[in-house]
Amino acid sequence: MAELIIISTLNGVLFGLLLFLMASGLTLIFSMMGVLNFAHASFYMMGAFIGFQIAKWAGFWPALILAPLVVGLAGAAVERFGLRTVHAHGHVAELLFTFGLAFVIEEVIQIIWGKSPVDFRVPRALDFPAFTIFSTNYPAYKLFMLAVSISIFVALFWLLKRTRVGMIVQASLTHPKMVAHLGHNVPLVFMSVFGVGSALAGIAGVIAGPALVTQASMAALLGPILFVVVVVGGLGSLQGALIASLLIGLLQTFAVSVNLSLADIFAGSGFTPAPKTILEDLWRVTIAQVAPILPYLLLMIILIFKPTGLFGTRES
Fold this sequence. Notes:
Blueprint: H1 2-33, H2 40-58, H3 60-86, H4 91-113, E1 129-133, E2 136-139, H5 140-162, H6 164-174, H7 176-181, H8 186-211, H9 218-233, H10 238-257, H11 262-265, H12 278-284, H13 287-290, H14 294-305
Antiparallel strand pairs: 1-2
């Protein structure tokens, strides 16, 4: 039992911080610009594939620097030549634009790299067990992922709350005309924010690529849960995104490791549902089998009882 709790906690925290690494850019874009970017997971996938290609040519460490820059520039270009025009037509137009962009990015990636997974490997410098718990080796690369995620949270929080740049960026959302009158280029601020948010997704892609499967469907697999993180934490709240990421990571990890059903829990009650009925199916389904839907159940509960999310001020 102790081994299960410790290993599941470590894996849950790691998965949660990986979710935060992906959701941080989405939170940044929404909190600063009010844009809920449906293509954010596609920028994450773009970062993984571009990182794979650069790592193939020059190694992992150059890829970790260059791939997010490429993705960030691509995001800035999307804002400058697409979203800036679409923004005038309201949030529905923005959602439809980013929704279509996600499909375009996926198709382009399939054309270049194909539909099969690519061989994106952990760098040799981090390909060793960092420590051993209960005869289970814990990879050093996972600790690297954890350290990067925490560092990005600290850096973003400091940038937004403690620097002049953060003040200008936040003021540009609520009082753009006043910021413009003070001599700041508000469109450039918005373009930069969207580019930085996209670059954060690119960093997540490069880091997660070797640990997870780098394939053309990776955005579709992780994209929906990013919105669960952002909504549960509170739209626009960086600390909320962190708490929600850890909560969902631990929830899913522990649920997957628990192979119990109602039949097991109430085995001594003597109750047996009628055979070949829905009740019998529900009676025998395990917690591990319903683990994938638990974050979405949490999302529904949050929206019912606290629509602004755990730490948010905007309505979800």
